[in-house]
Amino acid sequence: MPEMPEIETLARQLRAAVVGKRITGVYLSGMALRRPIASTFAARLRGRTIRKIRRCGKYLLVELEPGALWVIHLGMSGRILAGSPPKSRDRHTHAIVQFSDSTCLEYRDPRRFGLLAAYETLKPGQIPEIRELGKDPLSPGFSGRWLRPLLQNSGREIKSFLLDQHKVAGLGNIYVCESLFHARIHPARRCSTLTLEETDRLVRAIRYVLRLAIRNRGTSFSDFMDSDGRPGEYQNCLKVFQRERQKCVRCKAPIRRMRQGNRSSFYCAHCQK
DNA sequence: GCATTACCCTGAAAGC
DNA sequence: TGCTTTCAGGGTAATG
Question: Any atom of strand C under 7 A from CB of A1?
């Protein structure tokens, strides 16, 4: 399940692999992803050159020249592979973008929760999915000072708040669980009850967890692989996620699991208050 | 604004 | 062994 560290890993690899390449062809499976791929998609990519690759939350933004943006979201199970054109087409391959040097990018997504779109603009602010994103946790503005008033004005549970991409862009279930553990905050705590010190701790925990995860090229369970087809390694660093009934690394109490808004939360009831 | 629920989808795991 | 059911989850939309 690709979250921000996995997307950041991909973005870094793709910058090295495809920036400067000219798109000569686009194959589409014709199957809908989260929503159908627009009929204009292939034409907007074809003939353009990749100028830059950016990440916004869990989205990849591929800047094209002349000015256009190719927007990619991997959903739950999306993968992007860079290299030679595949000899046989995987049944979950939904797009292949070919370059003038005979290499290509292949988009696979078994569950089809992802998104591929192209816009005739270079301004992310004109793209609905991007415009509505909250603050990126690794951006300079992500601080206790910024977060504090938002939390004070919210009666929601902190887990739900942190998963809300309109508030904080890039966190998913894994890194919210891990960040709350590091910050020693219970996932069901109401936002407005967090103290100033806890808010600062949470900000530090989120940034620590994300940076460590990026250094480990993300987390791989069954789905995520980087663009070379290699799994990430942050799953070896997980303290609570998918560790139900195992001992807490801090206090040895068993890790618990609870349901919050149809998602699993993993936490230590002894350490996290 | 927020909680809840349903939906999209497939593969893995569990249950029989 | 093989079939069926359940579960997982990111984002969105409808509803209350």
Answer: yes
Supply the pLDDT for residue A25: 96
**Active site (annotated) includes residue A263:** yes
In a domain, A273, yes or no: no
Q: How far apart are CA A28 and CA A41, in angstroms?
A: 9
> Within a domain: residue A125?
yes
- Tokens for A5, please give them: 């560290």
For chain A, the C-alpha Rg in angstroms (whole number) is 20
What is the tally of structural domains in chain A?
2
Q: Answer whether any strand C atom is within 7 A of the Cβ of A232.
A: no
Of A106, A131, A156, the domain-final residue: A131
DSSP symbol at A6: H
Q: How far apart are alpha carbons A58 and A215 in whole angstroms?
A: 17
Active site residue A3: yes
Q: How confident is the model at residue A179, as a pLDDT? A: 92
The domain spanning residue A63 has which CATH number? 3.20.190.10
What is the CA A256 to C1' B16 distance in angstroms? 28
Q: Looking at the structure, do residues A100 and A179 belong to the same domain, yes or no?
A: no
Give the residue ranges of chain A where pLDDT is below 70: 220-229, 231
Of A44, A48, A55, A58, the active-site residue reads A58
